[in-house]
Structures are given as structure tokens and as C-alpha cells.
């Protein structure tokens, strides 16, 4: 079984920064999985934030976070990251990491594995 555990969430003021981490276990080969970050705010539908291809050489971002968020991965550590800067109140949500065993992925991809989520709260 693939298990994903997020960490790094917290409360910050608008304009602040946070780095989220997602550590994976149970993989045969972590590097074979495309990874993504999603978020779910109260009263809103879940939305994809960013994805990163298996080797880390390609990334995709939701338009609203481009230039502010950076997704990266360290395959040697089985860890996925989301560096968030210039945070806005509308970024407030529970953030989830997800994995799928394909080379390329975006939010339309059927991610098969999900973490428990970590709360990010951005105050005005």
C-alpha cells in the first residue's frame, strides 16, 4: 500500500510563506509516480494546485498560483514539496498530496493515492 503523509501547514498572514512536504512510503519505486498537490476549501470543490512529472523535469500549475507556488520532489527521499510564497486569504484550504503511477499528470488524471491533508490558513 502507498501511504502519503503531509506536513508543514499552519497559519500565516497574507504575503507570508509556507513549505509543505509530503513523505511517501510503501512504493515499489517512488520515481515511477507522478505527484500532485490539491486543495479543498470549506464550501468549495476540491481543485488541483500543481503536478510534477516522475523525474521532476516537468511541472504544471493552476493559473491562480503561477509565480507564487513551486512544486518539487526529491526522489532519493521519497518526498514531495510545495513552496508557497505571497500567500493570499483565498489560498486557505486543506492541502493534499496525491500520487498516480504514470509519467505525466495534471488535475484531470485519476490519482489513486491520497494523503490525509494539512491545513493552511492565511489571514488578511
Task: List the keywords.
124 residues; mainly beta; 7-stranded mixed sheet; 4-stranded antiparallel sheet; 11 strands
Layout of helices and strands, plus pairs?
Layout (H helix, E strand, L loop, with lengths): L2 E5 L2 E4 L4 E8 L8 E7 L6 E6 L6 E3 L7 E6 L4 E6 L8 E8 L12 E2 L3 E6 L1
Parallel strand pairs: 2-11
Antiparallel strand pairs: 1-3, 3-8, 4-5, 4-9, 5-6, 7-8, 9-10, 9-11
In short:
This protein is mainly beta and 124 residues long. Helices cover 0% and strands 49% of the residues.
Description:
This protein is mostly beta strands. 0% of the residues lie in helices and 49% in strands. Strands 2, 4, 5, 6, 9, 10 and 11 form a seven-stranded mixed sheet that branches. A hairpin with a 6-residue loop joins β5 (47-52) and β6 (59-61). The chain is globular, with a radius of gyration of 13 Å. The N and C termini lie far apart (40 Å). The mean pLDDT is 95.
Amino acid at each position: 500500500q502507498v501511504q502519503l503523509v503531509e506536513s508543514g501547514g499552519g497559519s500565516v498572514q497574507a504575503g507570508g510563506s509556507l513549505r509543505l512536504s509530503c513523505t511517501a512510503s510503501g512504493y515499489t519505486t517512488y520515481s515511477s509516480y507522478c505527484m500532485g498537490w490539491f486543495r479543498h476549501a470549506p464550501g468549495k470543490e476540491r481543485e488541483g494546485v500543481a503536478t510534477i512529472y516522475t523525474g521532476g523535469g516537468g511541472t504544471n500549475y493552476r493559473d491562480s498560483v503561477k509565480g507564487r507556488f513551486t512544486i518539487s520532489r526529491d526522489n532519493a527521499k521519497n518526498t514531495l514539496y510545495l513552496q508557497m510564497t505571497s500567500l493570499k486569504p483565498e489560498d486557505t484550504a486543506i492541502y493534499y498530496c496525491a500520487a498516480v503511477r504514470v509519467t505525466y499528470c495534471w488535475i484531470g488524471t485519476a490519482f489513486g493515492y491520497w494523503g490525509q491533508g494539512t491545513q493552511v490558513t492565511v489571514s488578511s
